[in-house]
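Re: that chain you flagged

S.,

Sorry for the slow reply, it's been a week of failed gels. I finally had a moment to sit down with the sequence you sent. For the record, here it is as I used it:
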Amino acid sequence: MTARIIDGKAHAAALRAQLKVDASELVGRGVRPGLAVVIVGDDPASRTYVRNKVRACEEAGVVSKIHEFPVDAPEAAVMTRVRELNLAPDIDAVLVQLPLPPHIDEARVLAAVASEKDVDGFSVSNAGALLTGAPQFVPCTPAGIMYLLEKENIRIAGRHAVVIGRSNIVGKPMALLLLQKDATVTICHSRTPDLAIHTCMADILIAAVGRMNFVGAAMVKPGACVVDVGTNRGPDGKLRGDVDFNAVMDVAGSITPVPGGVGPMTVAMLVANTLHAAGQRKQESK
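Prediction finished late last night. Pasting the structure tokens below so you have them in one place:
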């Protein structure tokens, strides 16, 4: 068996083309979508992510502004800027690039983002809304994965999904979204004993553990759909996933590559969430 490769790059390109049309319609109705990104420090990976996000938004017609702080910036200064952006009438979306330096309380800064501008879906209010099945914004990576599963006609209802990872950014919201689509969901993590026993029962396996090549062929059920959320740098500097792609290709039914799988969808969903926020502003102004 050779797995079908799920081309996230192609799916994202098609979605972004439609989003560009949607943005143009908003502009025609008098709303210019605006995104503000707050970044603290000079982490190369973070800066790359920010560039990709801003480029995608600008290509779709979203005005993007980057607010940079030095790595030793006081938490109060970052919080003040976030609150200012909450009140800015030309900004629909506020994104705080993670991770933040250790001296800044990440949870406190994220909580400061107004829920109606929290396009990452990380605030407590948006997380709570997701739990009840009525989120204003779904975190971009889980939303992108659900989009891929839908476009690839991967059946979710009645199937067993296993999520490796329990972060607030991917693992937990991913499990909730799958549950809402009637999957039976198991969440595993670093302290799960006999992990392969669980993963080998998965019809849909989501790997978001942050360890390169962590998932091997022996951990995958034949024919399963394997989604790799990992973004690890190998010794050669190249991007690698949490899944041993070459080995799992011979077992899985379908699989996302790294790069070119989940990553492009995450960026596309940020654009989608930003346009949704702008559309809400238009509704409220009526």
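What I noticed first: The mean pLDDT is 95.

Talk soon,
D.
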